[in-house]
């Protein structure tokens, strides 16, 4: 009943002529009904600037209904007015309740493959279905004049000269999380590049798998637990070791959650009456596993909102407690349409390219990848063809153990309990926090990525992706009119012009990687290329808001009260609301000091964190320990 709020306030002087105009009536109410006229005037004002929430103790609904019964009905205009007021009342009452219902009792668990995340279209965004497309083609690329992919990479994409450090001291750890996010959202099928083998949701599929079989391979099927230090997506093993270490923190966190859920057993939710009944134990395992997954995903999404996005925007340099919260319910409010939530998602091919951030790879990690590629692809890895690349990736995939609890990375051994040593995992996380990432922009991608980038450029052509400018149009961004506008570095602009001839012919992916980058400033501390920077914010808001498990179904009822409280962010704590330190300190005990910046702000290198905290004024920065933990 939002529009009723303030309906009878006496204080506002409103021009009744506006109302008459709106109604299309000359004189809606004769002068003798002056009181009622002012009520109507208030009504329309409230439609434009309603006050929420409605204070129903003021009995406004009842007064409104009374007003309707008292309305004179002598003229056709008065009758029309009644029908409008009645319509407003019914419309508001009808739209107070969401349709279709946003929540269904008992339907609270995530499926293994992302099906059922949208209840009406069960398959929306599930694993093993088609990508969507974001960008409408308005100015088709002239294919016949496109440069060779090798020329594009070698002239404007490959790192030239020295490694350039990221201007705002973003650590490699931020990109380890980004790699988990991108593996959560994208897994293009080698057989058909239109198909995405993972779910289009931030549901921790790198840990939990993308189908029943993968999920089963990581579960003990007892007490909701995962096999020790195990995750499902073998592609993570190809990444720098800090990525596996970070996924393992989430794996450990799952088991901690499942054990605590059983200990607390809120409302007897996980009880069994007969511990010898296999059916009851199976149900208990399933309930514990699924509830633990919901809570673990709650940690993950809050790491994304409170560590990742805050660092990307540079908010940790300020004392502001503000963060972007895409989960807020926005109901219809006057002229403001409701903003739906929990409606499901399908990631697009364009966003797959938006997220290829190979330029950010640190110097050490490039070296790691180089050694790895030599092992997988042979000494001539730099000149490998696309077909050889796919074939050797296939061979590598078949060479790793079927049981993911036997996987190893960076030659780190498992102990007799099959867990990795805390110090081995901590070492990778600490290294990731110390290593500064690479700066974005033209000529910044390490050469080791050459085969992957060529594959990317050529796949995009086969898939018929739009130009950079058409993608910008689709995001309501002004298309570039010249190469100098796209990248004001005259050398890069010249090379782009030599390659593409016309600005409208610049392909999406090479364009995204070579356009100008945003300055390091509040709002863009990650200093991404312009179009990517804008696109990922829209993407983040969509991914979180469209997932019903992070919006309509994110509640203490589904996560348990303990689980719900556990994932909350506290903006007044030492991490300024960050969450990731909870995982680091809990699952790597006795290694970090409680006030270590390496735990509290792992997404910037320690020297940058110190600068940011000093910049916030006062003695705040003195509360922290800046030393590298001893192992
Ligand atoms: C640092 C080490 C990295 C390595 C070794 C690596 C390796 C690879 C490989 C081999 C592919 C090709 C897979 C294919 O086409 O099927 C790929 C694609 C991709 N990479 Fe990376 N990458 C790294 C870093 C990153 C980073 C930091 C990001 C972004 C945060 C990223 C995002 C992507 C995306 C979105 C794809 C496309 C995935 C798909 O379509 O399945 N990568 N990467
Ligand atoms: Ca997913």
From TrEMBL:
What stretch or stretches form a coiled coil here?
A: none
Task: Look up the record and give one Gene Ontology term from the biological process aspect.
Answer: fatty acid metabolic process
Name the InterPro entries for this protein.
Haem_peroxidase_animal, Haem_peroxidase_sf, Haem_peroxidase_sf_animal, Oxylipin_biosynth_metab, Ppo-like_N
Q: Which Gene3D superfamilies match?
A: Haem peroxidase domain superfamily, animal type (1.10.640.10)
Q: Which key words are in the record?
A: Dioxygenase, Heme, Iron, Metal-binding, Oxidoreductase, Peroxidase
Record keyword Cytoplasm present = no
A GO molecular function term, named singly, is: dioxygenase activity
Summarize where heme b binds, as residue positions: 358
User: PANTHER family this protein is in?
Assistant: PROSTAGLANDIN G/H SYNTHASE, PSI-PRODUCING OXYGENASE A
| Protein name stated in the entry | Heme peroxidase
